[in-house]
């Protein structure tokens, strides 16, 4: 068995020790828990000592108050409490105390940010925290001044699914696996800054409340390089675990990220805690470095290119937070060119608790704010940097201060024309940082000239590698009505086929421009019908889509057609225009309606399935549930990259985003994106047809494990070694993902029958080997539905159900009898017996440990061909009989039931190990007395969560052992008592 302690946990503790943490390893050292109760997650003596050390003036009463205050925060939820605690840790608290000048409010620090070495950094493994039902024991908990800021779950890199297993544990600890479950201990996460899953060869990070799919790697230890990390830790190989632990838990970095790179945002489902990812942290640090070394000889600024969907607005926010603290009263101006983006950025800063951002309402308000509001944060549209109609000459200088920092969102769009010159004139000494979600053009003439060179880049390929975004695929449909130049005459004839030649000539002369054809009733009807069929057949719920049209009128027509054709539930989203005719105005949603449409669309369970748009929501609108964009509008260059990014956000079981093109704008992607470097945009959009070679290769790999996929038993025997199963599982899932992408395209047809057969092999292998890692997670929603339907039709239990228990003699016997030969029966029995022993081991480690050894001996003989199939079946049947007859074994010894048998075995085992003789009758009596003591305590509700009750039980058991005059030393009695307590936990669960 792989050892997570040896392969991941102990190396992690060593790494933390090298980073300056005081480490206690409970596998090597006895640690005396200072807490009064395990239901608390704070090490109060350490907290108390730190508060007193950092605030040496504090008196006893106020010390007690400060220590109490951080622990007794009361909120509406654990997330609410986490936010309140974060506020106290970052902004401190205050108490009233007379320090010689009367009773005044005094600031009490919980953490010294300026001098990290003044804090107490303590790491402990296997730290127990009681929840409402169960006790959790994370592998490593990291305390700063006694406050648990970090939780690290370690797995051996050789287990089947280390990432999934570790994240499942973290979710369990946080009670995130079910809506009503209380299997974890949220008390620990009231304080949590970072939660980490690591398996040495990989590591991902999140924080409290982060969904499993959003835990991400930390690939860049900036400002260090991997060579520096190797020197720091004295290693030749820098593992992802080394990189992660340095990036998050280096003392200075941890406190920096707690203070400057952590925000709370409120969305439709409640509060969310957000911490920086590596590209955001790196970009902010690089930007600050450039600001600190600004020079008049070069451009006053630079450009941050982080691809769409990678958290650009948050990077701006983190930079603002750090600038606020790094510079004395900086003025920050956040600029964009669209009202929706201005609203979004202002709302993001406001929601995340940024100090009072102010929105410039109009031209005069902007001028007034920039003249008079030094030290403020101002959001504005670039359009407000313009002259009034009655003004002449140059734009006025509003401030010559050099502590003004201008952050420009979507810098590629807004900064090249007269308005940009006006802004530069208004703020000649400001420092400008451009943020863009799309790369800078090859000719470098505009953005770089305005802002300077790149500060940081996070490319499309990098975001795909990190699973920060999903791949966007492209598919052209209804080629005969694409609006490409060569097709216009043919399209015209098709749309107006019922007109006479004279009428056609007049229509063509007066109206038949490209846009008119795009909006022709007959064409929209045909495209809408195709959208409805494609969405219903190709896009599996919960995924949703957007329809992008040429104009407001076209959007309205599409909406009406969708309704007429009983299509998916849709909403038209168009802007209000003063000059719009009434029949258009009535379709423009109010602010309240728009907010409701967006909420119902973003919610996977919301009724809105399609949004029909023209220009709105094509930038700055995040809807991870959106998988498909039906594009019937000419888009190019930056606008194309921004629009298609609406479908690149990750979502569970979403393997890709899809652009369905009805306009013909992307048949030649190289032309459409020619202004960019090919390396920057080569994976911006990938034609669906490009997936064919990948699908063929994935199919070859998946079937290559077997000589004949029709021979089920031979296939199952092939998958018996765990490493082979892991390889097959990865190959099968990749094949399934690609089938999910291409179905129902005809290119999938040659592989459908093999997908069915491989799915059956996969499901039966999961059953045979009791392998919980063989789930359908990540296969894709569409294919998962097909797979489950297929394996049900074959009479196989659903993949997530438990296999037939060997303790059910009738059902398991029937299962064995149904197998075709002794080889299959032997395989099924030995894996079933091994699984059952593993599951029940804690109930009676003595008996099940002995059975486990016998099974391992049998399997070794079988592998060496010293036993036949029939012989191992016979021997395994004997072991099965022993497992099923525990009650009979108990009664034969004079015990009440199999529970007493477990305690009897534990007592007998310790006595025999010490070569101490006790008569059978006395041993039975002692067992009954001890079980009575256990049941007296275990009958109390939630006894396992109450340390006082467990201590009481421990005393009672020891007293019984003393009274029974069992010939054991004090240390031997303690050892036996510990074993009895563990048995009590296994047998008397709530």
Task: Note down, in words, how this protein is organized.
The protein has 990 residues and is α/β, with parallel strands linked by helices. The chain folds into six domains: 4-267, no CATH class; 276-465, Rossmann fold (3-Layer(aba) Sandwich), CATH 3.40.50.300; 484-684, Rossmann fold; 692-793, no CATH class; 809-884, no CATH class; 899-987. It has 40 helices and 26 strands. Helix 27 packs antiparallel against helix 29 (722-742) and helix 37 crosses helix 38.
Strand content: 5-15%
Question: Helical element count?
Answer: 40
- Give helix % range: 40-55%
Helix/strand structural class: alpha/beta
Oligomer: single chain
Rg for CA atoms: 33 Å
Chain-wise SSE layout:
Blueprint: H1 4-18, E1 22-24, H2 44-54, H3 60-71, H4 78-91, E2 93-98, E3 103-108, E4 121-125, E5 129-130, E6 135-136, E7 140-144, E8 147-154, H5 162-173, E9 194-198, E10 203-206, H6 226-233, H7 240-249, H8 251-260, E11 262-267, E12 270-275, H9 278-292, E13 301-306, H10 312-326, E14 331-336, H11 339-351, E15 358-359, H12 363-372, E16 377-381, E17 404-409, H13 411-414, H14 418-426, E18 431-436, H15 447-451, E19 454-458, H16 460-465, E20 472-476, H17 488-495, H18 501-510, H19 514-518, H20 521-538, E21 544-548, H21 552-564, E22 570-573, H22 582-585, H23 591-602, E23 610-613, E24 626-631, H24 637-644, E25 657-661, H25 669-672, H26 678-681, E26 686-687, H27 691-703, H28 712-718, H29 722-742, H30 752-768, H31 781-793, H32 809-818, H33 822-840, H34 845-863, H35 869-884, H36 886-892, H37 898-913, H38 920-938, H39 947-963, H40 970-987
Parallel strand pairs: 1-4, 8-9, 13-18, 13-19, 14-16, 14-17, 15-16, 17-18, 20-25, 20-26, 21-23, 21-24, 22-23, 24-25
Antiparallel strand pairs: 2-3, 4-7, 5-6, 7-8, 9-10, 11-12
Helix pairs in contact: 1-7, 2-3, 7-8, 9-10, 20-21, 27-29, 29-30, 29-31, 33-34, 33-35, 34-35, 37-38, 37-40, 38-39, 39-40
């Amino acid at each position: 068995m792989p050892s997570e302690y040896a392969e991941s946990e102990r190396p992690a503790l060593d790494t933390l020790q090298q980073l300056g943490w005081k480490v206690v390893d409970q596998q090597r050292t006895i640690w005396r828990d200072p807490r009064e109760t395990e239901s608390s997650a704070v090490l109060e003596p350490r907290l108390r000592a730190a508060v007193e050390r950092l605030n040496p003036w504090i008196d006893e009463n106020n010390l007690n108050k400060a220590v109490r205050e951080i622990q007794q925060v009361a909120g509406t939820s654990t997330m609410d409490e986490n936010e309140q605690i974060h506020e106290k840790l970052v902004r401190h608290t205050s108490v009233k105390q007379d320090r010689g000048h009367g009773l005044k409010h005094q600031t009490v620090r919980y953490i010294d940010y300026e001098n990290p070495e003044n804090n107490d950094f303590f790491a402990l493994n296997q730290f127990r925290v009681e929840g409402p039902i169960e006790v959790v024991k994370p592998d490593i908990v990291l305390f700063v001044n006694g406050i648990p800021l970090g939780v690290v779950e370690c797995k051996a890199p050789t287990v089947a699914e280390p990432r999934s297993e570790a994240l499942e544990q973290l979710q369990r600890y946080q009670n995130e696996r079910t809506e009503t479950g209380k299997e974890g201990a949220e008390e620990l996460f009231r304080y949590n800054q970072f939660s980490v899953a690591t398996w040495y060869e990989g590591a991902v990070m999140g924080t409290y409340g982060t969904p499993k799919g959003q835990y991400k790697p930390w690939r860049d230890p900036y400002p260090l390089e991997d060579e520096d990390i190797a020197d720091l830790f004295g290693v030749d190989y820098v593992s992802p675990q080394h990189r992660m632990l340095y990036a998050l838990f280096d003392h200075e970095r941890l406190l920096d990220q707690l203070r400057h790179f952590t925000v709370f945002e409120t969305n439709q489902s409640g509060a969310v805690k957000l911490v920086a990812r590596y590209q955001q942290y790196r970009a902010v640090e690089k930007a600050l470095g450039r600001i600190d070394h600004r020079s008049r000889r070069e451009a006053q600024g630079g450009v941050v290119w982080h691809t769409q969907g990678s958290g650009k607005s948050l990077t701006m926010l983190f930079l603002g937070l750090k600038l606020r603290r790094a510079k004395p009263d900086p003025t920050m101006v956040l600029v964009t060119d669209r009202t929706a983006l201005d609203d979004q950025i202002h709302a993001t800063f406001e929601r995340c608790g940024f100090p009072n951002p102010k929105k410039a309402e109009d031209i005069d308000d902007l001028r007034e704010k920039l003249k008079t509001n030094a030290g403020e944060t101002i959001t504005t549209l670039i359009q407000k940097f313009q002259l009034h109609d009655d003004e002449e000459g140059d734009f006025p200088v509003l401030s010559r201060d050099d502590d003004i920092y201008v952050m420009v969102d979507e810098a590629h769009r807004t900064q090249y024309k007269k308005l940009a010159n006006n802004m530069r004139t208004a703020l000649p000494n400001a420092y400008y940082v451009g943020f863009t979600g799309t790369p800078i053009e090859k000719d470098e003439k505009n953005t770089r000239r305005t802002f300077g060179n790149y500060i940081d880049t996070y490319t499309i390929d990098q975001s795909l590698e990190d699973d920060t975004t999903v791949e966007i695929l492209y598919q052209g449909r209804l080629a005969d009505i694409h609006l490409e130049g060569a097709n216009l005459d043919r399209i015209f004839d098709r749309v107006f086929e019922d007109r006479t030649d004279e009428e056609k000539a007049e229509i063509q002369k007066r109206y038949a421009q490209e846009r008119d054809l795009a909006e022709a009733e007959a064409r929209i009807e045909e495209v809408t019908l195709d959208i409805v069929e494609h969405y219903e057949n190709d896009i599996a719920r919960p995924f949703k889509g957007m329809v992008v049209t040429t104009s407001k009128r076209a959007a309205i027509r599409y909406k009406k057609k969708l309704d007429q054709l009983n299509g998916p539930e849709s909403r038209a989203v168009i802007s209000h225009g003063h000059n719009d005719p009434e029949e258009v105005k009535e379709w423009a949603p109010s602010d309240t309606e728009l907010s409701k449409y967006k909420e119902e669309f973003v919610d996977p369970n919301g009724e809105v399935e399609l949004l029909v748009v023209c220009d709105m929501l094509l930038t700055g609108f995040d809807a991870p549930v959106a998988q498909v964009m039906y594009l019937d509008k000419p888009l190019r260059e930056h606008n194309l990259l921004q629009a298609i990014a609406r479908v690149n956000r990750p979502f569970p079981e979403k393997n890709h985003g899809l652009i369905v093109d009805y306009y013909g704008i992307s048949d030649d992607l190289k032309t459409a994106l020619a202004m960019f470097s090919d390396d920057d945009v080569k994976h911006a959009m990938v034609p669906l047809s490009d997936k064919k070679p990948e699908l063929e290769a994935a199919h070859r790999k998946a079937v290559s494990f077997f000589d004949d996929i029709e021979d089920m038993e031979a296939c199952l025997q092939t998958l018996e070694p765990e490493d082979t199963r892991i390889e097959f599982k990865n190959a099968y899932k990749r094949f399934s993902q690609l089938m999910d992408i291409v179905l129902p395209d005809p290119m999938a047809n040659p592989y459908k029958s093999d997908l069915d057969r491989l799915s059956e092999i996969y499901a039966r292998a999961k059953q045979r080997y009791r392998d919980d890692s063989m789930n359908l997670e990540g296969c894709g929603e569409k294919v998962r539905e097909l797979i489950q339907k297929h394996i049900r039709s074959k009479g196989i239990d659903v993949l997530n159900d438990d296999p037939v228990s060997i303790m059910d003699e009738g059902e398991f016997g029937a299962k064995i009898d149904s197998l075709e030969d002794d080889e299959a029966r032997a395989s099924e029995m030995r894996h079933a017996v091994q699984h059952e022993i593993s599951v029940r081991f804690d109930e009676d480690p003595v008996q099940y440990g002995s059975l486990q050894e016998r099974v391992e001996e049998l399997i070794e003989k079988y592998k060496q061909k010293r036993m036949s199939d029939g012989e191992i079946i016979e021997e395994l049947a004997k072991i099965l009989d022993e497992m099923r007859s525990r009650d009979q074994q108990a009664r034969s010894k004079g015990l009440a039931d199999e529970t007493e048998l477990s305690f009897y075995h534990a007592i007998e085992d310790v006595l025999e190990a010490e070569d101490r003789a006790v008569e059978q009758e006395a041993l039975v009596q002692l067992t009954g007395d001890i079980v009575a003591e256990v049941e007296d305590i275990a009958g109390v509700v939630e006894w396992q969560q109450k340390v006082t009750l467990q201590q009481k039980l421990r005393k009672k058991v020891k007293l019984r052992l003393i009274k029974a005059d069992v010939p054991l030393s004090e240390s031997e009695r303690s050892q036996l008592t510990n074993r009895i307590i563990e048995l009590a936990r296994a047998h008397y669960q709530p």
